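Continuing from the previous page...

OK, I double-checked the sequence for M48 family metalloprotease against my notes and this is the correct one:
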Amino acid sequence: MRQFSTRLTTRFMSAAGVIALVACTGTGAGAGAVDSAGSQSGEARSISAAEKQKGAEAHPQLLEEFGGAYTGPQVGYVVEVGQNIAVQSGLGNARSDFTVTLLNSPANNAFAIPGGYVYLTRQLMALMNDEAEMAGVLGHEVGHVAARHSEKRQKTATRNSIIGLLGQIGSQVLLGDSAFGRIGQEVFGTGSQLLTLKYSRKQEYEADDLGIRYLASAGYDPQALSSMLSSLAAQSAIDVRAAGRDARSTPEWASTHPDPARRVSRAATNARKLAQPDGVRNRDRFLQRLDGILYGDDPKQGVIEGNSFLHPDLKLKFSVPNGFAMQNGARAVAISGSSGQGQFTTAAYNGNMTSYIDAAFQSLAGTGKSITRGAVERTTVNGIPASYATARVESNNGQVDVTVFAYEFSKSSAFHFATITPAGSASVFSPMYQSITRLSSAEAAAIKPRKVDVVTVKSGDTISSLSSRMAYTAYQQDRFLVLNRLSATDRLQAGQKVKVVTY
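Thanks. Re-ran it with the corrected sequence; updated structure tokens here:
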């Protein structure tokens, strides 16, 4: 969450990130038809002016929602590889028509929108281990553009798409034509998110097939997409466990799709058909370029440490209950779990807390709608003046409670939680409401960014010793193994390059 965000119509922007991951680098099922000449059915031969305009209009909003464009030295490299792989699509003027952006986002994500706009997050780039894997993911996204998947998807995007989006982040309540349906649409948004909704199973496989084909025609090892998907599945499993959920549960980005292993296996099988003995990986070049990239949350937008969110500039901290996950977005921190969901954000504040709470409810209800709240109660939380109110709202699946819990940090600044739970269970978030506190200057100064260090293995280094250098207090070895696509039984060799996350 960026400092001093004051937009009243707030949204759970992290949800868009989850759906984009489903759409582009998550798991899917289906089959794409590739004819004997190698062309993909429905594959475009050029990007139309209308598509370019649509993409150009959505691009600024997507940048805002996903942390903005990253500005590190890796940017030029990503653009180079992305445009080179776009040429393999055969689209006219592909190198100049495609806009490739590295996003300053801590989510493992990649997606594409009409007009040749392709996006890769720095976090997903850090999970990769060679240039071929990056080319494979970017090729997958180019494939979505070439096959015009977004246009086909837009024709069928209805409110059911938004219902699916809610399901992706653990909500048990479905949207309808009720007031809660409007809440869901306003909170989760219907603009750029419709451009990044999940693709169909068939479309995912089509994009995989195209990405693999592009890898082979560009001279890369076509197995690279399969190995990247495998790393992504393993990282998602760690994220689930670190968030306090059942390690055996399905990763959220895969919850509506078949077993992730099936897609990995399919990609590997198809890649073997195009295997070439001299297919390149460019591991050394990739690691050299990757070295030093920001990893995890950008402290300027706040950081998530275990169950806590800390913002060094705003000097605040709160914690979510066990079993709930957080995702830091550009305008809000999204909170999700099986028993409720919420967000932490801010809005304009003029010193009147009742007006602030009413504005928060109005932003959830949307234009022309309203929510009848209960009385505004006043309290103090860790020395911070606070006020809250709850509304009982009808949904298609029964009644739900919508709560706004707000805090006055100064006479001109306030922050609030907006939460949704099944009726009668709003208290599930009570520990979170009571956890907010101010950070001291020393505590704020102690929050440091993480980065990827590419190190050379020395004689005597082991997986255990290098894992202990990972800048985490939990799952250090698991994170190290997944980051480097290693298994616990592998032996490191002196001179080998590996990635370590440090401060």
